[in-house]
Design a protein that fits this description.
181 residues; two-stranded antiparallel ribbon; alpha+beta; 7 strands; single chain; Alpha-Beta Plaits
Length: 181
């Protein structure tokens, strides 16, 4: 194999690796990427006694958007949420599309209070920035669950489970809500 072929092979391998952890619609990390990065973040938080919080968010009434305006609008809503999340978090934060209309944001060096502030800032941004697509103005709201690494929550799976339980509570409380656990 020539040096050029070896370099090209390495580039292709790197591209395949990137695609494996990236959501094709949003360009964010996907669920697999979340678990690769998230496990390391939880381990780092434990090893160095640092804070790590997470926000799990879900688009309220995405099915209604899809049914009313079509799936292309639903996809645009997902991309819009991804953009808002990415542009309202720090470079060290990990923003992921967890699946469907759910997103997860890992917030290294954030306790529950700081994570709740991020969640509220995001919530208000969504409310004040409707999705504009062609001539349509589509209001978007999200529900969020917030959790953090603690003595009881020592791994990513548990961290996400608690955030998911909080998200479920937010939905029950009437959507466009934040629940902190």
């Amino acid at each position: 194999m020539t040096a050029t072929a070896a370099i090209r092979n390495a580039q292709l391998h790197a591209e395949v690796q990137k695609q494996a952890i990236t959501d094709h619609l949003t360009g964010l990390y996907n669920r697999r990427g979340l678990f690769e990065l998230g496990d390391r973040e939880v381990e780092r938080a434990w090893r160095y006694n640092r804070s790590l919080a997470t926000i799990m968010l879900d688009i309220d009434d995405l099915k209604t958007i899809n049914d009313t305006f079509g799936h292309a609008y639903g996809d645009n809503a997902i991309k819009f949420i991804a953009h808002i999340c990415q542009s309202n978090t720090r470079k060290i934060d990990v923003v992921c599309r967890y699946g469907g209309d759910e997103f997860v944001i890992l917030l290294p060096e954030n306790d529950l209070f700081a994570a709740a502030k991020v969640a509220e800032r995001l919530r208000l941004t969504f409310l004040s920035s409707p999705l504009r697509d062609n001539d349509q103005i589509i209001p978007i709201s999200v529900s969020m669950g917030v959790s953090k690494v603690s003595n009881e929550i020592r791994d990513l799976k548990s961290l996400l489970q608690v955030a998911d339980e909080a998200l479920y509570q937010a939905k029950i409380q009437g959507k466009d809500q934040i629940v902190i656990k």
